[in-house]
Amino acid sequence: MKKLKLILLAMITVSMSAYAQDDSRDELRIGAKVGVNKANIYDENNDEFVADPNYGMAVGGFIAIPIGTYLGFHPEVMFSQKGFTGEGTVFGSEYKLKRTTSYLDIPLLFAFKPAKNITLLAGPQYSYLLSRKDEFTGFGIDINDEEEFENENLRKNTMGAAVGLDLNFNNIVIGGRASWDLQDNHGDGTSSTPRYKNMLLQATIGIVF
Fold first, then answer.
1. CATH topology of domain 2-208
2. Each residue's pLDDT tens digit, 112-130
3. What is the mean pLDDT of the chain?
């Protein structure tokens, strides 16, 4: 009961703070944010291709450009870790693979601001693959491989889509995003790497300068 009262008190405090804050929807706002990603992959061409989520970090900056009170343009630049984990059995031997990929994500989001502390976001996203790290355990061996992505058979430039929600409390922004690739990871389709697309859930907290 005591914990419940504390939670309710915190919610009331946040609500009162949001109500009391100045309406900044008409202002140009520049900020930085940091957060965590829950990433995975999917394959539209192979229903048997299954992987588990991989967790990583996200850090970057954003500009909120107003187009009147209720609309706006919200470009971001984010360093974002994605990837997946998977395990299985081959010839009676178990293996586990964890792949972490590092991307430069540039979402170009259109904003709808129905209230002074709520922003809804949606738009295209460009992603550039910076590096990849594989951690493989199985068959009695452990392999750690990290490289800058120079494989010409794999796609480094990917177009995707993103949607999100920001909660604005004066100079603090709490955000959530969901994004997914619209192109698979193959550049020319000849690589032996499985064909897949990234998908991502992201939670961040930021500060507006």
1. Porin (2.40.160)
2. 999 999 999 999 999 999 9
3. 83
Two tokens at 118?
């709520």
Q: What band does 162 get if pLDDT is binned at 50, 70 and 90?
A: very high
Asked whether the beta carbons of 93 and 67 are under 8 A apart, the reply is no
Return the structure tokens found at 28: 């140009």
User: In the block, which residue shows the tokens 């989520």?
Assistant: 53
Report which of 174, 185, 177, 175 is spatially closest to residue 152, judged by C-alpha positions: 185
Q: Say which residues have a Cβ less than 8 Å from residue 192's Cβ, sequence separation at least 6.
A: none
Indicate the DSSP class of residue 195.
P
Query: How long a stretch of residues is the chain?
Result: 209
Tokens of 55: 């967790």
180: which 2 tokens?
């997914």
Statement: residue 168 has pLDDT above 60: yes
Neighbours of 56 (CB within 10 A): 20
Name every residue whose Cβ is closer than 8 Å to that of residue 146 and which is 6 or more positions away in sequence.
131, 132, 133, 134
- Within the chain, residue ranges assigned H as helices are 2-20
